[in-house]
Amino acid sequence: MRDHEPAPGRPGRRLTTKETAEALGVKPETVYAYVSRRLLSSRREPGGRASTFDAKEVEALARRNRREAAAVPGSGGDLSVRTRITLIDKDRYYFRGVDATELATRHSYEEVAEWLWTGRLTPGVTLTAPEATVEVARHAVNALPEHTSPTDRLRVAAIAAAAEDPLRFDLSEEAVLSTARVLIPTLVAALPPARLTHKDGGPLSHRLWARLTGRPADEASLRVLDTALALLADHDLAASTLAVRVAASARAHAYAAVSAGLGVLEGPLHGASSGLAHRLLLDVLDQGTAVPVIADELRAGRRIPGLGHRLYVGEDPRARVLFSLLEQVPRAEPALLAARDIVATTARHTPLHANVDLALAVFTASCGMPATAGETIFAVARTAGWIAHALEEYGERPMRMRPIGQYVGPRPPQPLPE
Are 109 and 180 a contacting pair, CB within 8 Å? Predict the structure, then answer.
């Protein structure tokens, strides 16, 4: 669910020359040039002829190459974005310097959101919206066709809430924080309820549950949902977050910045990834084994959803936390076993860890939610991070997000077309 590509390997694994070249995006000859320049070390396994390479060392070089490529003047990569919000480092990630997984397991989504926005924890905080704003957003969302995607509903709700707010162009920190505290609960309240009887009070996760499934909630499942929201609140400069910062750089108001993020989120390689994993999981549950399902995916040339992440060589820490909590949900056991089968079966082809998309799929499938539920959870959760990044960007020089295009078309002057 995010900007992810499979990591080159897992800790301790040795990569072949071909795998190393693919991970670095170079030719095999270049890999050996790296060895001669002592940028990589290689060794031959006992009884083998070919050289192998340490996965961690390869990933470190890949990161270095990406940083150097980004630093080329005029490439657009000089848009280095300094941020105090999220750090991803060595298969862990941190919100304002604090381990994000620990925050998410010990504090509610609303408390984590306040931490991202202000750097202060506010125990017991809840996010509520004025009834007038909610009604405007609901009216706009209810006018959409029945088949409208959750992300489109959320985008329309954000636009409607903006139209209701005469102070939306006030970009002071206090005003933007006020917008954030109203917008997120409005997004949830504007979604059609899955159950006829629901309450709009209490923690946000409780309100969101009633929009995702008609099944009654239990404490263990609600805890998974709340923790998932907190874990997904931010993840550094993912594609949608960069779009938010570009909008904020142009001094778009917070509603518009969030709308920009929602537009990017809908891509199959970002927010919609969990839906693909959800459907894959249901196929495995239906077949009783992952083997034919994985075979069909690979035969069709498709990447297996829910596996690997470009920022984590090892396990996605968000998936690790959610899988641990899902083990405490009895009805999740079949989906958990199916997820493990997917990982084990795919490991025969390429060893990759489960990512947060697969963990979300286990949750949504086992709770009777539609395939789009993971996308909804992701969008609501990430709105907190988008607001944090918008706040940060409002403090920077306006219009700084302006890369220089590298023109590769025909050189002028060209004759006028006839």
Answer: no
